[in-house]
User: Fold this.
Amino acid sequence: MSTGPANAVLDLHTHGWLLVGVIGQVVFTSRFVLQWVYSERRGYSAIPMVFWYASLAGAALLLGYAIHLRDPVFIAGQGGGLLIYLRNLQLRWREARETGENPC
Assistant:
C-alpha cells in the first residue's frame, strides 16, 4: 500500500465527502430534537422555522453526498424532500408576510 501524495489526496477527498455525509445526517436528524424542544416549551405539537431550515440544510448536504456516491435512490429521496422543505418555507414566509410576523 502506497502512502504517497496521491493517496493522501484521495484519502482527504474520501474522508471529506464522508464528513459532508455525517454532518448532513447530524443536521437533518437535529431537526427532530429542535421540534421536540419547541413543542415541549409550548405544551403542544408545533413546528418551528428552524425545523425547516435544518431540513433544508441537512437535505442539501445529504443530496451533495448522494450525488457524490451516484446513488439514484438516495438522490431521489433527498431531492424530493428538498423541494418539499423549500415549499414549506415559502408557505411560512408568505404567512409571516401576510400577518406581519417575523418569519424566523
Residues 5-99 form one domain. The chain has three helices and no strands. The chain has a mean pLDDT of 87.
